[in-house]
Q: What sequence folds into this?
């Protein structure tokens, strides 16, 4: 499983990401994934027209670290590395949008993994100065996510609900 899917401007249309994968792109295209208790995290710089989407499954790598996109701590670091490289020498000013973190299992001891994922992502972004400008987290339904690089819109679809765009 690849941990990143770079996309060249003009040739990129859409990339579907699996668990633990990170997709990045410039100028145009769609980055898509489906999440339940996992979280889809989009980081983007509207000015530079670069973006990435990670499908984060767990809050902390605890030394495992691969694939990088699987864990909140390593996914964010890897996205920063990839987006900085894609920025071509300019310093990205990133913002974030996120969705997922659902409670998919009725019986769970302790804090549900979805809540842990959301909390870990927010705690990792805060000291980096990356604001979360939109979020749709929690609940009990999986979500299909599509992030448009050109418009920076995150479209969220849940079974039985109308799509929302943030």
A:
């Amino acid at each position: 499983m690849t941990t990143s899917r770079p996309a060249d401007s003009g040739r990129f249309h859409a990339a579907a990401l699996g668990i633990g994968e990170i997709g990045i792109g410039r100028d145009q295209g769609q980055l898509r994934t489906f999440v339940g208790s996992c979280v889809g995290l989009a980081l983007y710089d509207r000015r530079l027209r670069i973006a990435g989407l990670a499908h984060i499954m767990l809050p902390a790598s605890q030394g495992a670290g691969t694939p990088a996109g699987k864990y909140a701590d390593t996914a964010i670091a890897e996205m920063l590395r990839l987006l900085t490289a894609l920025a071509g020498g300019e310093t990205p000013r990133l913002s974030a949008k996120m969705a997922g973190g659902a409670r998919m299992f009725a019986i769970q001891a302790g804090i549900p993994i979805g809540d842990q994922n959301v909390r870990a992502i927010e705690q990792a972004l805060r000291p980096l100065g990356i604001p979360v400008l939109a979020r749709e987290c929690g609940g009990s339904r999986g979500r299909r996510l599509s992030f448009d690089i050109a418009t920076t819109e995150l479209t969220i679809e849940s079974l039985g609900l109308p799509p929302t765009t943030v």
